[in-house]
TrEMBL record:
Domain of life, source organism: Bacteria
Region (Disordered): 167-202
Originating organism: Raineyella fluvialis
Predominant cellular place of this UniProt entry's protein: membrane
Protein known as: Methylamine utilisation protein MauE domain-containing protein
Listed transmembrane segments: 72-95, 116-134
Residue stretches of biased makeup (Low complexity): 175-202
Keywords recorded for this protein, A-Z: Membrane, Transmembrane, Transmembrane helix
Annotated Methylamine utilisation protein MauE domain residues: 4-132
Keyword hit for Mitochondrion: no
Length: 202
């Protein structure tokens, strides 16, 4: 698959790692996550709050660091997690009152909305792409040795200004438009006109 698809597993991995760090920094935020959504009690239990960020961190790092074929297990686990997040967000959106997910710790206290739903749908799409890529033998750690991948990551494949502002081709038999004529041409033309005016009889 194309090298730029390395962005899909990276998006999933970074999301999981950031979410895990946010939950560790503010462990109390998980106590009110999805409160009022009518979810089973075990989802907010102490066991889940303790080991959930551990699973996110392990899977996020595994997606990036594990080679083929072991990365498939991490990508599969990450895909299951983000799919579960999507289901929880759908339930929260349909709840009668505002519900906060606390997906990234205490900083993520805004109520779940359509924007949250769209974000999780895109995350599931990225997870599916990453899963297909891993199933076909692709891995992040294997692609990091390619210069093309670093080009995608660093934006080196963006068009250069010279390509964006390149002079358009001129059809045969036509003169170049005046806006593309160089200052030297204009200066020469102006000087020739001045010289002609001086030589003309009064």
């Amino acid at each position: 698959m194309p090298d730029f698809l390395v962005l899909a597993p990276l998006v999933v991995a970074v999301t999981l790692v950031v979410a895990a760090v946010g939950k560790w920094r503010h462990p109390d935020a998980g106590q009110t996550a999805f409160e009022g959504a009518g979810l089973p009690a075990w989802i907010g239990s102490g066991f889940v709050r303790r080991w959930h960020p551990v699973a996110e961190l392990v899977l996020g790092l595994g997606i990036v660091l594990l080679p083929t074929p072991w990365n498939l297990l991490a990508v599969l686990g990450g895909a299951v997690l983000v799919l579960a997040y999507l289901v929880l967000v759908i339930i929260a959106v349909r709840a009668p009152g505002p519900v906060s997910c606390g997906c990234f710790g205490a900083e993520d206290t805004a109520p779940v909305s359509g924007r949250t739903l769209a974000r999780n749908i895109l995350l599931v799409v990225a997870a599916v792409i990453a899963l297909v890529d891993a199933a076909l033998g692709g891995s992040v750690i294997g692609r990091l040795g390619s210069l093309a991948v670093w080009g995608w990551l660093l934006g080196l494949h963006w068009p250069s200004p010279s390509r964006c502002w390149r002079r358009p081709p001129v059809p045969p038999g036509q003169r170049s438009p005046s806006r593309w004529r160089s200052p030297t041409w204009r200066t020469t033309t102006r000087n020739s006109r001045t010289t002609s005016a001086r030589r003309s009889p009064t």
